[in-house]
TrEMBL record:
Keyword terms, alphabetized: Cytoplasm, Protein biosynthesis, RNA-binding, tRNA-binding
Localisation: Cytoplasm
Record field: compositional bias (Low complexity): 167-180
One Pfam family hit: Arc1p_N_like
Provenance organism: Mycena maculata
Name of the featured protein: Nucleic acid-binding protein
Residues in GST C-terminal domain copies: 1-133
Length: 390
């Protein structure tokens, strides 16, 4: 079954909503064949009706726990169909009832406030009127903390008998976690010389300056890119966190990013903003939502109470534009920072905003200044001078 056939089986006005969004080019049916197949499968489930009845909300909630969207990490026609099909049920729930289905409520509110869905829904009013939710009296979720597991003591192997050779350890035990064959070969080679003040390795091609993490941490190892917030909501289980969808120019769609900025930057000032994203940190779960990048912010020299601002890329920047350090234009960042090596944590103390409010990294040894920029110009903080960046 193709996409059009699956949508044609949906009842009106849900079908009209899905067609309105997709035909206006505001939504992906699926960016890959695999994604499109999943979208069609979800629409078929929605059309059957059992999943969206009040009795089926518990099952649906379980399926939605690890998800921001139904398919992959971006909004698809499946989300529009599920939102439309849920609307008659959710709109009739009283607070005590939707408190009983927090995951479904979180998902529904997220989809109904996304720009493509809201635009189409308003055009089809009153069928898909905005459903208001009052969370002021929501019961707090009690989280059980598991007791730390005791580490088992390693059993010492008996000495090998005379005349016999000791068995080689398994491959997994022979290599440190995260180290593969390529990493081993790199260790056998000569250690790369330390970076000079400009961050380039002496005697090495500039394009390979940060290709491996076996040298001293340098800023060019960090993958910075221009991002654009295309959707944002408050984290359903954490008062101080936002959950953003940030377009960084990838074919797979926006990345889900969790930021602790609720108490410092109003949501209205976050919507539709262009920013600088740290894109090669190891993904981390924050209160049940996995975050795939970090928003680069400037924190006042007087501390958080003095203000926090998004670092802004120059005008005319586009999602995915490379952000680099002056003197390291041709360096290649690591595909992912190894958290055990504390690369970002080692570099971060040198991040600062200059008197000009320009974002920069100051080499702690040579005091040389390397401004953070794109091909369009230098990235800045709106008002903060002498602020730290993180």
């Amino acid at each position: 079954m193709d996409f059009q056939s699956s949508v044609s089986k949906l009842s009106s006005p849900v079908k009209d909503l899905v067609l309105s969004v997709t035909q206006n080019g505001r939504l992906h049916v699926g960016k890959q064949d695999k994604d499109e197949r999943e979208v069609i499968e979800w629409i078929a489930k929605i059309e059957q009706g059992d999943l969206i009845k009040e009795a089926g909300l518990k099952t649906l909630g379980t399926q939605l726990v690890p998800r921001t969207f139904l398919v992959s990490n971006y909004l698809t026609a499946a989300d529009v169909a599920l939102y439309g099909a849920l609307h008659p049920t959710i709109s009739k729930l009283q607070p005590t009832q939707y408190f009983a289905h927090p995951t479904v409520t979180r998902y529904f509110d997220h989809i109904q406030t996304s720009v493509p869905v809201r635009t189409a829904a308003d055009a089809l009013a009153p069928a898909f009127a905005l459903v208001p939710f009052d969370f002021s009296d929501a019961p707090r979720v009690e989280r059980k903390v598991e007791a730390p597991k005791k580490k088992e003591k390693a059993v010492k192997e008996p000495a090998a008998e005379a005349g016999t050779s000791k068995a080689a350890p398994p491959a997994e035990a022979a290599a440190a976690p995260g180290e593969g064959k390529t990493q081993k070969k790199e260790k056998k080679g000569k250690k790369a010389p330390a970076d000079d003040a400009g961050g380039k390795k002496k005697g090495a091609a500039p394009a390979k300056a940060a290709a491996a993490d076996d040298g001293e941490p340098v800023p060019s190892m960090i993958d910075l890119r221009v991002g654009h917030i295309v959707d944002i909501m408050k984290h359903p289980d954490a008062d101080g966190l936002y959950v953003e969808q940030i377009d960084i120019g990838e074919e797979t769609g926006p990345r889900t990013v969790v930021s602790g900025l609720v108490n410092y930057i109003p949501i209205e000032q976050m919507r539709d903003k262009y920013l600088v994203a740290v894109c090669n940190l190891k993904p981390a779960s924050m209160r049940g939502v996995k975050s795939f990048a970090m928003v680069l912010c400037a924190t006042s020299k007087d501390g958080k109470d003095g203000g926090i601002e998004l670092i802004q890329p120059p005008a005319n920047s586009k999602p995915g534009d490379r952000v680099y350090f002056e003197g390291n234009e041709d360096a290649t960042p690591l595909s992912q920072l190894n958290p055990k090596k504390k690369i970002f944590e080692t570099i971060q103390p040198g991040f600062i905003t200059l008197d000009s409010k320009e974002a920069a990294w100051v080499n702690p040894t040579t005091k040389s200044v390397h401004r953070i920029r794109t091909k369009e110009g230098v990235c800045v903080a709106p008002t903060l001078v002498g602020a730290s960046l993180s």
